[in-house]
Design brief:
With 162 residues, the protein is of the alpha+beta class. The chain has a single domain, classed as Gcn5-related N-acetyltransferase (GNAT) (Aminopeptidase, 3-Layer(aba) Sandwich), CATH 3.40.630. 28% of the residues lie in helices and 27% in strands.
Length: 162
């Protein structure tokens, strides 16, 4: 599928918030509740003012339809005298899955961030078999082990936040 990436910047529009809530439901099913509670918009406005966080919407060139979302963060890599970029969320609307959108989004991300002379790596993590196949068309799988410790996770219902 022929797509382009459009960057979402602060201040976000109501249309952007609605699409991001819809588009990110595939990676966290409760994001819509946070959008409806009015919590997503101010969060996005604050985060997207930063110079190390990007949010892109994939747009089908032929129709102008919004078909997916990809977010990226930059982090320091002191040992390489540069930085790395990590793809945080990749989500394609169900009706566009299996049409090459995710690999094309990653190709466009690689093109964009490879232009940074300080960029040393682009990272992406997944545990989904379909995602592994799609991402493997653009990036190489390594034997690196990813470990994490959940911290301050959000509850499913924003009203139950402490």
């Amino acid at each position: 599928m022929d797509i382009r990436l459009e960057q979402i910047k602060a201040p976000v529009s109501a249309e952007d918030v609605a699409f991001l809530a819809k588009g990110l439901t595939g990676v966290w099913e409760h994001i819509g509740a946070y959008a409806e509670a009015g919590l997503l918009e101010p969060y996005l406005d604050e985060e997207l003012k930063r110079d190390d966080v990007w949010c892109f919407v994939a747009v089908e060139n032929a129709t102008g339809a919004r078909v997916g979302v990809v977010t990226v963060t930059r982090f320091s890599m002191i040992r390489y005298l540069g930085c790395g970029y990590e793809v945080e969320e990749v989500s394609v609307l169900p009706e566009y899955q299996g049409k090459g959108v995710a690999p094309r989004m990653l190709e466009l991300i690689v093109e964009r961030f490879a232009a940074d002379p300080q960029a040393r790596k682009l990272l992406i993590r997944t545990n989904g078999d379909n995602a592994k196949k799609a991402y493997g068309r653009v990036v190489s799988m390594t034997d690196m082990v990813s470990m994490h410790k959940p911290l301050n996770l959000l509850p499913a219902d924003p009203k139950s936040r402490g």
